[in-house]
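Data availability excerpt. The first of two example chains:
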Amino acid sequence: MTTAPIALTCGEPAGVGPEIAVRAWETLGARLPFFYLGDPAHLPAGTEIAEIADPAEAVAASATALPVLRHDFPAPAVPAKPDAANAQGVIDVIARAVDLVQKGAASAVCTLPINKHVLQSGAGFAYPGHTEYLAALAGVDRVVMMLASPLLRVVPTTIHIALSDVKAALTPELLEKTLWITHNALIRDFGIAAPRIAVAGLNPHAGENGAMGREELEMIIPLCERLRGEGLDLIGPMSADTMFHPAARARYDAAVCMYHDQALIPIKTLAFDDGVNVTLGLPFIRTSPDHGTAFDIAGTGRANPSSTIAALEMAQTMALARNGTTS
């Protein structure tokens, strides 16, 4: 067990974050100590909370109540009705969590969903999302998004861009950095001594020797061959339509794909409720549930906490791996 608890940031208080934080604590309790970083007034009425002054207090408090490290917001939280007045508070909570984990007061940061439009309109948020802001706070210029579950780990090399822009964005430099960051993270954060990485082709049937595209022949295959010589265990490029069935998945520890849907369709098919968003390449551990604010069901009690629970559990497992501990 790690000595420091996990910081769970509040995210958008008008979304499902506050209620799934409570339900995650009800499931995990003292087994996995974490603290909610946000305004206790935004939590569902009747929530058993223990306000703490220091993250270390969360370890004992979590046995009987949800530990809360207070961060006051200017406005109340009304489910499904985000208030721009709270936007800066959401941003400040993320920065505060990063400061705590960098100081060693938290073992990891787990972030509940934000609404980028609210942050941009309410506080001039200058980043496309959580990941880019976390990278800026950490002072790193390249991070990688991984979606992970017990069944599959996937990494999209290009992420939130139009499919028509993928070919230009998919440079050898970008793919190489993605492969190295993935390789190093599998060792450091997942405890895999000799990672095996499957590399998807860009084109149908991985180009079929140039008949369906030449990106594999001209860029992906030469790069993979060079990186194998530098010590990476790479499989492929593989045809994306045959690399995600059970027998194929048994051959690798993570799959690096070329674009967003190529990676996310298989994992959301296999692990829709318990997939976890992990940011690789940061100097600290960050996980997040793989869903958004879900304004349509906020406050109804229908939100599924499974992905948040999985994100907290994965954060703990990664922290143990970094510490060289097993459990």
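And the second chain:
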Amino acid sequence: MVTELRRVGAIRSAAWAEAFARVPRHVFVPEWYGQETDSRGITVWRRHDAADRDAWEAAVYGDQTLVTALDPETAERVDERAWTGIPTSSSTLPSLMAQMLEDLGVVDGHRVLEVGTGTGYNAALLGARLGDRLVHSVDVSPDVVEAARGRLASLGYRPHLAAGDGQRGFPGHHAPFDRIIATCSVPRIPAAWVEQTRPGGTILTDVAMGIEGGLVRLTVDDERRAVGHFTTTTGRFMAARGDAHAYRHPGRAPYAPRAGAHPASLTAADIRAHYPFRLLLAIHIPDAELVYHVDDETGAMSLQLQRRDGTWARAPIADDPTTVTYGGNADLWRRAEAAWQWWNDHDRPAQDRFGYVREADGHHYVWHLPDGHRWSLGC
């Protein structure tokens, strides 16, 4: 696995190559759940473990994310080894973990806070690199923390672990930290992370903005501003939760009746093909979501922009890709087209051409690094 991660450029330094080589991933993923569709068309999660050792080891040491826990409140057993339910924890694909750890920029002596303990694998990697007494990790689920504690201890690692809302940082008096790395997504940079980061320290996290999200690397300054940019590394994580059994279910009004159709210069294929544009689209239309829509009568699939007020606009995946239908306000797809025009006029900038700031007063904004054009994301 380490050889492959070095070959693809995910591991770039000898220090992280040694850490990945020292920490066996299989200890942290004794079982995992693979997504399937059963004979009734229902999505289920099938458990895999060492009973089929070859397949289990191939998955554990392959470059893939493995779901490791399901919400017991929503999980329903459908056969001996399969459940429905909501995934609550996972072991991130190793290449993404390696890229994020390299992007974190740690040096010997750094104190690190990890938000999202999960299986404990990432905490073990940090411990192998820095010494586990410099590593702090928090997870919203007490059960997940205790399971990770046992796995870590079996290999001789004893980092500082705590159960709680990681958006509030690490409990007690362990701050400040030189680095904070989050393996969950947040809609905004929490104030506690800035407060618990040493001036000159770094926060690395996934910011989810509705339509799309991205990893940002921010430096905290003496004025408690967190300033940086989106990284070349991309990845989406499960949303941070304030409670182990609480899941955000944002309310949305019923879809507005179809109001009409119009030709469009932006197609579903354009949106699907370009991650940096989807990120820009999220910045341009922060109150929208991007989903797939299947027509109940024809089964035709479309890419749909939607707002919580019931407004929607959808572009077909097939058929005539340049005709957009809409309900409610007709301007939704027009705003997406304006973003498309801006992106093309500015030579299709990649995501790392966009800066990201959390001001000391809680305001967030993104700006285009070459010309300073700025978009507010609110508080």
